[in-house]
Each structure stands twice: as structure tokens, then as C-alpha cells.
Prior knowledge:
A: 10 strands, 31% helix, B: five-stranded mixed β-sheet, 6 strands, elongated, ATPsynth_dsu/esu_N (chain A), transport (chain A), mitochondrion inner membrane (chain A), CF(1) (chain A), hydrogen ion transport (chain A)
Amino acid sequence: MFRQATARLLSRSAAASPKARPFSTDLESAPAADQAFVDAWKKVAPNMDPPKTPLSFMKPRPPTPSSIPSKLIVNFSLPYASELSGKEVDMVIVPATTGQMGILPGHVPTIAELKPGLMTVHEGNDVQKYFVSSGFALVHANSFADIIAVEAVPVDRIDPTLVQKGLAEFTQKLNSASTELEKAEAQIGLDVHSALSSALSG
Amino acid sequence: MAMAALRREGKRFALSSPNPINVLRSSLAPSEEQMSLGVRGISTQIVRNRMKSVKNIQKITKAMKMVAASKLRAIQVRAENSRGLWQPFTALLGDIPSVDVKKNVIVTISSDKGLCGGINSTSVKISRAMHRLTSGPDKESTYVILGEKAKAQLIRDSRNFIELSITELQKNFLNYTQVSVLAEEILKNVEYDALRVVFNKFQSVVSFLPTTATILSPEVVEREAEAGGKLGDLDAYEIEGGETKSEILQNLAEFQFSCVMFNAVMENACSEQGARMSAMDSSSRNAGEMLDRLTLTYNSIVDDAECGAFNRLRIFGDLPRFGPASSNSIVGTQ
């Protein structure tokens, strides 16, 4: 009887300790809640726990190092997947609206809007090419680069014949477009397809 | 002694075909039960009906639990994949729910279908508290509601504050395109300085954490950046592309809103399925317990009836079914 009781106690304590076992994708971080918010909440709703904020679900970023680090840490995220997460690379080239922009470790902090184009990730001699639709690239002072795109495909999965067909189709649509909206849509389609074809060739 | 009597009676009627007797016996039995039970005051019929309905409820809730479990599995993967989407924005801009702005918009995310435990009530409670927090002499806050359940609850007392309500979100498969169109609609129709998205974050199958994510409009971002504090080092960032900084910040804010909304909607859908699973699980367990209790009641009633029958045999020396003085003349023939 005592053996059973102790076994039950042990199992219960073992079950209780990883109480809110976090997923590996999000961990509790030290700068948790916004203290001013918690205080204001307590005044308004003293019986309720304040809601969590996204900060408590994010791994904290390391502070800016004093010397330029050797590698760039890249997070490439899409709505459906995190393509690259915390990967250490040498260089990333992104298609910003002002042209291809190269990001090296120690790059000045930047917010860049992306246009449809080719993105390459260089690590040693290994080059990965993706075609991204638009998005944003954020470079932080601590050599973290966050690239968020709506859609991205590895270049080798693009079908060249479909690209040619799309090009022809949208050129024709642009010529026959009447309203501003149609013209804008056709222009966007044309831009994307010409970027696709240059990505395939370049 | 009872057994000997039975055997005697059985031999007397062994010549005739047993089936009619059996049929008669079975038809007599319930009325006999009812006759002796009439003394008790409870009929087994009622108990049996209750048992049947409780058993049906148990089956239905168990099936609903299985369905919710399978839906949860499918959507959990996608929700976890979408978690990387809002992190870059929070890393850049931080998340300051205590920011002091004039126009707050509270975006409450809830489910359309019910029977999912308490998650919708929790979201509504948090939204109401946020409304109280962000309303003041020179501040105002309005609601944008996603989902039927929150709409039903909030329309009762905050009807004037509801700007927009959107339902039937999960009719088509949830995807980013749909959510970004939705975000665009909201941004077009609603004036805002800060958007606060309230949803249930999926931690595990049994735990859902109410969460609020704050997105600031570009003007407020600039104001906060100049004021210093958490956004102070935003000015250090160079802006590539676009003519002015504010244009880029506008695009950034809109993109951030659609990304945060996408993640919030997915997490809430996950929480809904998980909550439904645990609600249906506890419901079928309760039904099972009720069924056990009813079975015990039923058995005790039947036992009482049989006990009464044996007592009669003991006292009066006859079994009620086959008593010679009884009016069961149908049995007495042939």
C-alpha cells in the first residue's frame, strides 16, 4: 500500500513539473511582460490574469556584439513554414526594391522592402537560390537578418515553359487593359514573370 | 423448493409447443414486473429510456471528440509553422501593450461553432477588460469581431462599439491569402492608432493561453521612436527603397498586421479544436458515469421485483405466473 502511494506521489510530481512544457519553437524569455501593462490591467480587472504578449513567447535576441561576428544568422520565414531558422551563413543577397542587396555580417541595421526576385544564401561554397514574391528584409545590429516573404520557392522547382507562357499572357493583358486596376494587375503579373525568367537564367 | 415447483409446472406443459408459452411468458413478464413494481412506484421503462438516451449522448460526444482530435492534428502542424512569421516584427518593433494612444481597436478572434469549452468566454472577458483599460476621457476603443460566438456575447452590451464583425472564417481552408484580404478590409475601414489582437494561443491540448498582440500604426511608431524607450533605436535603421520612411513604415505595419492575424487565427483554431476535444471527452465520461448509476438503479429495481416474486412463492406457495388460482387461464389450456 505504501509502495503504491509513493509511486503515485512520484508520478504526480513528475507530471506536475513539466507543467507548461513549451514547444521547441517558443520558449519563455527573460524580459517577459510589460510591467506597466500588467499594473494597468490589475487596476481594471483585478481578478483576471493579464493576457500574455508575444514577447513572452519569443527567444530573446542577443545584444549587439562589440566586434563584427564572422557569420550572419538568418531567419527566413513564410506563412506556412520557417524555411531557415537561426542558420549561420556567410552572405545573403535579397532582391530589394532598389536592386539586389547583399547582407554581410556586421551590416548596418536596415529595413528593406522586397520586390519579386531571386534570393541567394551563401554558406561557404554552398549557394541556395530561392525565388521570393514580395516581403521584407530586416537586418539588425547584432548580425541577425530576418527575411519575411509571402511565397518563396527554390529555383529548381520553377517550370520555364510556364514562365514563358505567363509572360506572354500578361503582356497581352497589359496591352488590352482598359481600367487602371486591370493595368496595375497586368503590370504586376508582368513584373513577377520577368523576374522569374531572369531568375531562371541568372 | 421454488425450483421443484418450476420443474413440476414445466413438465405439465412440456407437451405443448414451448414457443407460445415462451411468448406468453415474456409478454406476461413485463406486466408482472409492472404489477409487482407498481407497489414500488418506479417503472423500469422509464429507467430504460433514460439509459438509451444517455448511451446515445455518450456515443455522439465520443465521435465529436475523435473528429476534433483529427482536425487538431491537421491544423497544429500549420500553426506551429506559422509561429516564425511574427517573430521578426516583434524583434524589430517590440510589443508594448501599455502604449498610450487615442484610437484603439480591439480585434477579438473567436470560433463560429460552440461546444468548445470556455475559450470564447475567456476571449470576450479579456476583450472587455482591454476595452475598459483603453477607454478614458480622451481615448476610445472599438471592436472588430471575428467569429459568431464573440459577436453573440459582445453585441449584448457593447453594440455601439462594434465597428466590424466577420463570421464563417473557417468555411474555406484557412490560408494566408484569405487572412491578408481580411486584414486589408479591416485596415481600410477602421481608423486606428493601435490594433490589439486578442486570441487564445495554443500551448498544449489542455492549455490555451489568452494572448494579446499590439500593432501600432506608422505614425505612432514614429512618435514612439522619437520619444525613445523600447522603439528608440528604430531610427538607427536605414530604410532601403521607397521615397520616404513613412511609406516603408506603412507597408511594414500592414504586413505586420496580416502576419500577426494569420498566426492568431491559426492558433485560435487550434485552441478551439483542443478545447472541443477536452469538452467532449469530459462529457462522454460524465455520460458513462450516469449510465453506470442508471444501470445500478435498473438492476436494483429488477432484483427487487424478483425478490418480491420469490417472497410470494415462499409465503403463498406459488409462483405468481403459474398460480392455479390466478386468472392466467390462457396458460392453463391444453
